[in-house]
């Protein structure tokens, strides 16, 4: 028991250090639905660059394993100058882009839930021009629908940050994170025996 508690403390400390080094994670809104719930993450985009991650809803079934067809996700960006959205090449859907601030994606494949959360479903890429102003914030209205699922809507915030604030970490900070990563890797096997985390999968 003492050994397990000590290991848990090491993992918690390492996790705090990594979170501090990488900066805050921005949470978005959620939709508690039936039969599907969703989370809508917020995102930072650097001036003159592209957000590190694509923007898309995380979906999970409230009915257990299930499969749906005719899934559709639409995005509408408002309230921020110099920022645009575009279909992502990792989503695997069929997307139309009526404008630089609107994208509509449909999925020709069945959408299957097997107990896990599907993250960044049919996502878009967020970019900011060099003319964008750091500190400006806009919203992306995201609407999901499928056959047998009533359409629901959520919003994600898009915050424009300084060009280097959220770029990949290099130098001494990268060395610190690398060392912490090795610590977590070494403790990972034992950690799995202590706690079981929810599994997530990406669609392709």
TrEMBL record:
Signal peptide: 1-27
Transmembrane segments: 173-195
Listed name of the protein: Gram-positive cocci surface proteins LPxTG domain-containing protein
Organism: Actinoplanes ianthinogenes
Top-level taxonomy: Bacteria, Bacillati, Actinomycetota, Actinomycetes, Micromonosporales
Membrane found in the keyword field: yes
Annotated keywords: Membrane, Signal, Transmembrane, Transmembrane helix
């Amino acid at each position: 028991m003492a050994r397990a508690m000590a290991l848990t403390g090491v993992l918690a400390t390492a996790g705090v250090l990594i979170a501090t080094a990488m900066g805050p994670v921005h949470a978005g809104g959620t939709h508690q639905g039936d039969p599907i719930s969703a989370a809508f993450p917020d995102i930072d985009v650097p001036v003159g660059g592209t957000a590190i991650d694509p923007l898309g809803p995380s979906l999970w079934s409230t009915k257990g394993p299930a499969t749906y067809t005719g899934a559709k996700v639409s995005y509408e960006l408002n309230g921020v100058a110099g920022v645009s959205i575009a279909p992502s090449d990792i989503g695997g859907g069929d997307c139309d882009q009526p404008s630089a601030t609107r994208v509509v994606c449909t999925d020709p494949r069945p959408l299957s839930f097997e107990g896990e959360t599907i993250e960044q479903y049919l996502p878009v890429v967020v970019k900011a021009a060099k003319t964008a102003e750091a500190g400006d914030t806009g919203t992306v209205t995201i609407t999901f629908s499928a056959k047998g699922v009533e359409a629901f809507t959520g919003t994600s915030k898009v915050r424009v940050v300084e060009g280097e604030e959220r770029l990949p970490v290099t130098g001494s900070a990268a060395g610190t994170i690398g060392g912490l990563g090795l610590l977590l890797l070494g403790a990972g096997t034992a950690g799995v025996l202590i706690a079981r985390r929810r599994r997530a999968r990406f669609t392709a």
